Amino acid sequence: MVNQVIHFVFGVVLARLLSPTEYGIIGMSMVFITFSEAIVNSGLEQALIRKQDCTEDDYNTMFYTNIGLGIVMFALLYFAAGAIARFYNNSELILVVRIMSLNLVINSFGIVERAILTRNIDFKRQTKINAWSSSISGLIGVSMAFMGFGYWSLAIKMISQNLIRVLLLHLSSVWKPTLSYSVSAFKELFSFGSRMLGSSILHSIYTNIYSLVIGKYFSAAELGFYSRANQFKNLVSSNIESSTQRVTYPILSQIIDDEERVRTAYRKLIKLTFYISAIMLSLMLINAKEIVLILLGDKWSQSIPYLQILCLSAYLYPLQLINLNVLKAKGRSDLYLKVEIIKKILSIPAIILGVVFGMEALLWGIVFNSIITYLVNSRYSAVMIHYPIRKQLLDLFPTFAWVSVASAIAVALGSLLTSNIIMSLITKTFLFFSFVYITGRLLKIYEFWEIRKIIQEQIASILPIWLRVRFRNIKDAL
Fold it and tell me: Do 444 and 414 form a contact (C-beta atoms < 8 A)?
């Protein structure tokens, strides 16, 4: 959350200084950078996290393999930059792609350290590192934008962020690379990682195909509107997705042999995750107009309906990740790959309809595909832990129902009470959270009390000792 808020603040400033077209140019290059990053990772990180007893040979082998792949992918994109520019019919992309490709080499140096921290479930240190790298790179990007560097401010911001992050990972890591490489260690890790690599490549193609299609068949400005709306949506969804995926995988891997415990944890996870994502995404959906106009200005107004539709597409995504983590924890990377192939094939009709009927049709196709994707993801994990999709949906329906009611009430009363855009944002937000709080208490909703307990514990943990008793008294009164 800290990292996303930092990105959000600097993103708002940059969006006011830059145009949708400039965002679109960077978005075009990122399609190929993100795809290449999946290859550089090569699935070895997931294999390393899952392996019970890792050796120095495992760490060193992964370290040098990732660096080698990073250099290879950088070279390929460097020479392919001309073809990419011709594909988009934009000569500016030649230098942009070549400079942005440096991220592949930089990131390859930090994958092992990140995997070690994830294995140890040490997300506190990762949060600090990400916060510092995001803050410093954000200041660099905003400064360059003020000086008139245009889209280069976005490119340098990204490079500096990755450079600072990798440097801090190395400085804070106990593990240091040594000159050793094991072919047998590579084969062992790659036997699991190869299918994860295939899945990552497919997922990367899927998540970036929309940017590729928009940049090719529409315009750089249209891609800029889409990218900006997607970033707003990610302020909520990426926090939930990242936390869900990165935390549940190592935990499920540790308890995967105890089916009853896995099923109990899994059920609790999807209920709490959907509760949080439904609340936060609904709040952004009903306030999309106010958020865009207040923070970015009228020049970004075209992204308002894009943001609303993309919010709808994100409701089920964290649940998809939990389902997939069950497959990974079970060691079924073959099924993981199979699921990814099925999902990507099912997305093709939505993309074709979007090209034919326009941007909004493309976005509604994303929503429809997210529903199908959840059903496909859930099918295999449901069989493995005996928690059928029907029971999952029954557990999720109450949250969906009352969040829909809360959204309808907030929009209806908010539009009646005020026409001022700032007051509208405040009024709808207040009405929405009031409904959530009141119904949570009166109906004794499990998810409400669980999240309330977690928040109170976190607040108490950071307070000085002399304040904790006073906070406990206030908590009991509420």
Answer: no
Angstrom CA distances, 210 to 114, 215, 351, stand at 29, 8, 7
Sign, CA dihedral 413-416-421-427, equals negative
C-alpha gyration radius of the chain: 23
Compute the half-sphere exposure of residue 128: CA atoms within 13 Å on the CB side of its CA: 9
pLDDT per position as a tens digit, 9-53: 888 888 888 888 888 888 888 888 888 887 777 666 767 776 667
Q: Report the alpha-carbon distance of residue 310 to residue 285 in Å, rounded.
A: 9
Is the pLDDT assigned to residue 475 strictly greater than 60? no
- Residue identified by tokens 């208490």 is 441
What confidence score (pLDDT) does residue 137 get? 92
Kindly report the backbone phi and psi dihedral angles of residue 54, in degrees, each rounded to the nearest multiple of 5, phi listed first.
-90, 140
**What's the rounded mean pLDDT across residues 94-114?**
89
For tokens 């514990």, the residue is 457
Query: What global pTM score does this model have?
Result: 0.70
For residues 309 and 364, what is the distance between their CA atoms, to the nearest angstrom? 7
Q: Give the up-direction half-sphere exposure of residue 4: CA atoms within 13 A in the CB hemisphere.
A: 15
Q: Rounded to whole angstroms, how far apart are CA atoms 404 and 415? A: 17
Instruction: Name the DSSP letter for residue 18.
Output: S
> Given phi > 0 = left and psi -120 to 50 = alpha, else beta, which region is 150?
left
Give, in order, the Cα–Cα distances in Å from 12 to each of 131, 138, 335, 385, 438. 17, 11, 40, 43, 33
Cα–Cα distance list, 402 to 272, 280, 368, 406 (Å): 15, 14, 22, 6
Q: How far is CA 155 from CA 147, 159, 230, in A?
A: 15, 6, 18
CA distance 174 to 147: 40
Give the span between the Cα atoms of 67 and 40, in whole angstroms: 8
**DSSP H helices in 89-122:** 93-100, 102-108, 111-119
Tokens of 446: 């499990």
